[in-house]
């Protein structure tokens, strides 16, 4: 998808690197209205790539997932507003620190909270795996607040804005930038805590050529003034002037304007969702029916294999399975797995296990006397299954199969966690840019309902055809 990954053209003479970044962390990285990515980190790494003559593929994904992808070998490096800490230095090698920052906390615009002691007994929103989360955790006992964790900044901000959490901890430039561009929060105290530096990171002991190229390129950016221009561009101007977004205007806050202005992104998200759904349904159905047939086989070993597969992949949460395949498996196989392939494998194994369970149940629900009658007429076991039992069992399971198709469509939204820019992730990216959560999620909900309705009509048509046959 052009909206989720961009590449600097590679040549045979240039080294090529896969680098990950965050998806919703303005002004350091965020998506423009045209679907491309921009921000301080993005411009820095692109400028360094140009100066050092290497090509790259930039993979936007949630911060915590991106950091894990570097450690698993899926990605060569990460530039995502990553604070340099002693703990991270144990597993990452950092390049020259490129931005000094610190942690602040923010509350809803109408909140009367002015000091940390007023957070006692209340819930604080934190972003998983960040230095700001570590700082908040370190003072939790002192101020007596509870904690909720989120994978992206935008969801964390909105949890505070709607009143579910009393405050959020975030890096100062990121929070100030978001507030300046429409986020309905305020910073009660401008005092910065836990000051530190952002750094570009690679897995410890790996990709040292890339790390040296970053250091050389960054030194060149500092020397010729390019670095200062990038910082000024994003921290001295509003998001509207940087990204081309019209989020600051009253007109753009209407649902129709937001839908029209972001239509290409919505279309890309829908296409990715449909691709995942169709391929997932096809492969999960094949795998599920095969496992279901194994589940009624005469061999105890074959039945045992079917039961084990159903037990494992129905028991694993879809998100855990997706992380294991995309981030864990590369450790075992010593190879990179594309996000789309990992997503399809996840859907196939998970949805296929559920399909297998009701396929097996459908076959077993056919009166056993019909099998006995078929065998008494000279048919073999598998001939009886093929000609007598399976046709009846398939008709029985059609409603469950249709329901599983709809579940598969909805489950594609979970795959945003491994970097797939399907419809839900598209919504996240647009909200991060426009700060119009209510309107954007209303649009996303309507699009999902339309897709589910069309899928239901198609499935019902197929079901009616089978009844006629």
Automatic annotation (TrEMBL):
The entry sums up its family as follows:
Belongs to the binding-protein-dependent transport system permease family.
**Biological-process GO terms, alphabetical:** amino acid transport
Q: Does the keyword Transmembrane apply?
A: yes
One Pfam family it belongs to: SBP_bac_3
Question: Got a GO cellular component term for this one?
Answer: ATP-binding cassette (ABC) transporter complex
Provide the topology term for how it sits in the membrane: Multi-pass membrane protein
Among CDD domains, the record links this protein to:
TM_PBP2 (cd06261)
Q: Which domain of life is it from?
A: Bacteria
| Keywords noted in UniProt | Cell membrane, Membrane, Transmembrane, Transmembrane helix, Transport
Q: Which NCBIfam families has this protein been placed in?
A: HEQRo_perm_3TM
Alphabetical list of PROSITE patterns matching this protein: ABC_TM1
Residue span(s) of domain ABC transmembrane type-1 = 270-459
Gene3D superfamilies in the record, alphabetically? MetI-like, Periplasmic binding protein-like II
Q: What name has this protein been given in UniProt? A: ABC transporter substrate-binding protein/permease
One molecular function GO term is: ligand-gated monoatomic ion channel activity
Q: Which cellular compartments is it found in?
A: Cell membrane
- State which residue ranges cross the membrane: 276-296, 308-329, 438-458
Q: Where does it primarily localize?
A: membrane
């Amino acid at each position: 998808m052009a909206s989720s990954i961009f590449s600097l053209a590679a040549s045979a003479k240039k080294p090529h690197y896969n680098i990950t970044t965050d998806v919703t962390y303005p002004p350091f990285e965020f998506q423009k209205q045209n679907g491309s990515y921009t921000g301080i980190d993005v411009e820095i790494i692109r400028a360094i790539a140009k100066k050092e003559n290497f090509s790259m593929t930039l993979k936007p994904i949630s911060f915590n997932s991106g950091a894990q992808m570097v450690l698993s070998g899926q990605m060569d490096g990460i530039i995502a507003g990553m604070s340099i800490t002693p703990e991270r230095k144990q597993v990452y090698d950092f390049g020259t620190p490129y931005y000094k920052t610190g942690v602040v906390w923010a509350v809803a615009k109408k909140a009367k909270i002015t000091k940390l002691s007023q957070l006692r007994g209340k819930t604080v929103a934190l972003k998983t795996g960040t230095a700001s989360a570590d700082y908040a955790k370190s003072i939790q006992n002192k101020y007596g607040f509870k904690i909720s964790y989120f994978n992206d900044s935008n969801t964390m901000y909105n949890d505070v804005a709607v009143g579910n959490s009393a405050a959020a901890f975030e890096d100062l430039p990121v929070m100030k930038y978001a507030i300046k561009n429409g986020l309905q929060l305020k910073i009660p105290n401008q005092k910065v805590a836990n000051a530190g530096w952002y750094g570009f990171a690679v897995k410890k002991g790996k990709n040292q050529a890339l790390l040296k190229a970053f250091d050389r390129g960054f030194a060149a950016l500092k020397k010729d003034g390019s670095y200062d221009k990038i910082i000024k561009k994003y921290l001295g101007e509003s998001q509207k002037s940087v990204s081309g977004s019209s989020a600051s205007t009253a007109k753009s806050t209407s649902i129709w304007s937001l839908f029209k202005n972001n239509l290409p992104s919505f279309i890309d998200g829908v296409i990715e969702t449909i691709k995942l759904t169709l391929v997932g349904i096809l492969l999960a159905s094949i795998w599920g029916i095969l496992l279901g047939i194994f589940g009624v086989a005469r061999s105890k070993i074959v039945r045992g294999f079917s039961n084990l597969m159903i037990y494992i992949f129905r028991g694993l949460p879809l998100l855990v399975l997706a992380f294991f395949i995309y981030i864990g498996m590369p450790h075992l196989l010593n190879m990179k797995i594309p996000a789309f392939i990992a997503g399809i494998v996840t859907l196939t194994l998970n949805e296929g296990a559920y399909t297998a369970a009701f396929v097996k149940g459908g076959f077993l629900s056919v009166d056993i006397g019909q099998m006995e009658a078929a065998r008494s007429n000279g048919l073999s076991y598998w001939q009886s299954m093929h000609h007598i039992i399976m046709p009846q069992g398939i008709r029985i399971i059609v409603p469950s199969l249709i329901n599983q198709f709809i579940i598969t469509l909805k489950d594609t939204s979970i795959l945003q966690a491994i970097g797939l820019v399907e419809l839900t992730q598209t919504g996240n990216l647009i909200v991060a840019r426009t700060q119009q959560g209510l309107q954007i999620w209303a649009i996303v909900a309507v699009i999902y309902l339309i897709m589910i309705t069309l899928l239901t009509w198609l499935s019902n048509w197929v079901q009616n055809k089978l009844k006629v046959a």
